[in-house]
Design a protein that fits this description.
The protein is α/β, with parallel strands linked by helices. It has eleven helices and twelve strands. The chain binds pyridoxal-5'-phosphate.
Length: about 350
């Protein structure tokens, strides 16, 4: 069986975990948490990292730390994981979706401006599958309209855009350390920023918004989204191998591309853009919409051969939960839904050489 992903764990993870057990530091108060925050911030060229319990939690914290709430709109891709839109909705704001580029599968930056209204507060840029969002025009647009930028770099640790690390763009970036990401802590995530006030607010939201002076008196509602020392120990060991992980993922992506290039009726990921070489977090395949190959049938047949696959993300404007809440009612005709309905993913598993 070739699973979609298996984490690669080694002696260094064991060594750092053993240190947690030997010293008794297992909670979020342990020293590896701050070390992991600093090392991750360095890796993406940010001043501050705030480790949390998942990438989803990082999005909640980032949106709240920016003060986004009722009356605000946040522009984000239709084609992404639910955590992005859920963070906006949970903050009491309104998510506004932009269609995907059918070739890169990222938010089509040329279609953002038509969605900007006087209520727009922020753009959430989510890098999808392997290539970064076209950040230069996106940042220019944000600047022109005075909008905040949240960068979801969960899939893109180790990737760059125009030579600048993903995770370093905009006001605040988020990472996930789920096992299928380039660096894993089992479960985990991080908020990254260069703004010390934003970092302080993120730390507060992560930790129930305890007041520094008067503990157990609260002016805001936060969460317990703390990362444990055990998770940070694994993360530190993983981060030491990031360059190697990225090199291996790229090699696997190129191998899939070479071997599938002659197969008719499928669209493969772009090898790169002017700004970035594909990092192949996953290897997405879109089936031609000609009725010859049906994604579900292909997935079933690959499964029969012991090859694991996943469907693509299901777009936000078609999510029953959001339709029920009255969101996206005018968005039934985004043109690039087809990339969702005829698509499968091969993950570029870290463990396959
Ligand atoms: C994985 C992922 C997340 C969520 O991270 P979790 O740690 O699973 O909560 C958020 N955004 C994107 C783009 C992701 O790929």
């Amino acid at each position: 069986m070739i699973p979609v992903n298996t984490p690669v764990l080694g002696p260094r993870e064991k060594e750092l975990l053993a240190r947690c057990i030997d010293t008794g530091w297992i909670s979020s108060e342990g020293p590896f948490v701050a070390e992991f925050e600093a090392a991750t911030a360095r890796a993406v060229d940010r001043r501050f990292g705030v480790a949390v319990s998942s990438g989803t939690a990082a999005l909640d914290v980032a949106v709240s730390a920016l003060g986004i709430g009722p009356g605000d709109e946040v522009i984000l891709p239709a084609f992404t994981i639910i955590s992005c839109a859920a963070a906006v909705v949970r903050a009491g704001a309104v998510p506004v979706v932009v269609d995907a580029d059918p070739v890169t599968w990222n938010m089509d930056v040329a279609r953002i401006e038509e969605k900007i209204t006087p209520k727009t507060r922020a753009i959430m840029a989510v890098h999808i599958y392997g290539l970064p969002v076209d950040m230069r025009p996106l940042m220019a647009l944000a600047e022109k309209h005075g909008l905040k930028v949240i960068e979801d770099a969960a899939e893109m640790l180790g990737q760059t855009y125009g030579g600048q690390p993903c995770g370093s763009f905009g006001d605040v970036s988020v990472l996930s350390f789920y096992p299928n990401k380039q660096v894993t802590t089992g479960e985990g995530g991080m908020v990254l920023t260069d703004d010390s006030a934003l970092a302080d607010r993120s730390r507060s939201f992560r930790n129930l918004c305890f007041e520094p002076g008067r503990r157990f008196v609260h002016h805001h509602l936060g969460w317990n989204y703390r990362m444990t020392n055990l998770q940070a120990a694994v993360g530190l060991a993983q981060l030491e191998r990031l360059a190697d992980t990225v090199r291996r993922k790229r090699a696997m992506g190129r191998r899939y591309a070479e071997n599938l290039s002659a197969v008719p009726g499928i669209q493969l990921p772009l090898a790169g853009t002017d700004q970035a070489e594909n990092i192949y977090w996953v290897f997405g395949v879109v089936m031609a919409d000609d009725g010859r190959l049906d994604a579900e049938a292909v997935m079933a047949r690959l499964g029969d051969h012991g090859i694991g696959t996943r469907p693509f993300f299901w777009p936000m404007h078609l999510q029953p939960v959001f339709r029920k809440m009255g969101f996206f009612t005018g968005e039934s005709n985004l043109v690039n839904n087809s990339c969702v309905e005829f698509s499968i993913i091969f993950y570029t598993s870290k463990s396959i050489r």
